[in-house]
Specification:
Blueprint lengths: L3 E4 L2 E4 L4 E7 L6 E9 L6 E7 L4 E3 L7 E6 L4 E6 L8 E9 L6 E2 L3 E6 L1
Parallel strand pairs: 2-11
Antiparallel strand pairs: 1-3, 3-8, 4-5, 4-9, 5-6, 7-8, 9-10, 9-11
C-alpha cells in the first residue's frame, strides 16, 4: 500500500494558476500509474489526468491545454500544474495510484480547489 499526501489546493481567481503536489510514501518506480481525479459537489469523481511509468500522459478533454501532469522521480512526487482556471474546475482534487501487481488503487485525502469568478 502507498500513502499519498496532496498539497497545493486553495482559492484562486478565474484565469489564475495553482500547482498541486502528491507525495508518495514509496518509490515512484513501484507505481504503475499515478493520477489526479476531482469531485465537485453533487457530481461523480472524474479523472483529470494521469501519468504512467513510461511517462505517457492522459488528460480529460475539459483540461487539455490548461493542465499539465508531471513527476519528479527523485522526490516520489507527481504534480498537477493548473493554468487558466475556471469556476467549473472547483472541486476536491484527489491523487491516486496503482502499484505494479495490484488491481486496487490507493487514494490521498484530497485537497480543495476553489476558483472564484
Amino acid at each position: 500500500q502507498v500513502q499519498l499526501v496532496e498539497s497545493g489546493g486553495g482559492l484562486v481567481q478565474a484565469g489564475g494558476s495553482l500547482r498541486l503536489s502528491c507525495a508518495a510514501s514509496r518509490t515512484i518506480f513501484s507505481i504503475r500509474v499515478m493520477g489526479w481525479y476531482r469531485q465537485a459537489p453533487g457530481k461523480q469523481r472524474e479523472l483529470v489526468a494521469d501519468i504512467r511509468s513510461d511517462g505517457t500522459t492522459n488528460y480529460a478533454d475539459s483540461v487539455k491545454g490548461r493542465f499539465a501532469i508531471s513527476r519528479d522521480n527523485a522526490q516520489n512526487t507527481v504534480y498537477l500544474q493548473m493554468n487558466s482556471l475556471k469556476p467549473e474546475d472547483t472541486a476536491v482534487y484527489y491523487c491516486n495510484c496503482y502499484m505494479w501487481g495490484r488491481s486496487s488503487a490507493d487514494w490521498g485525502q484530497g485537497t480543495q480547489v476553489t476558483v472564484a469568478s
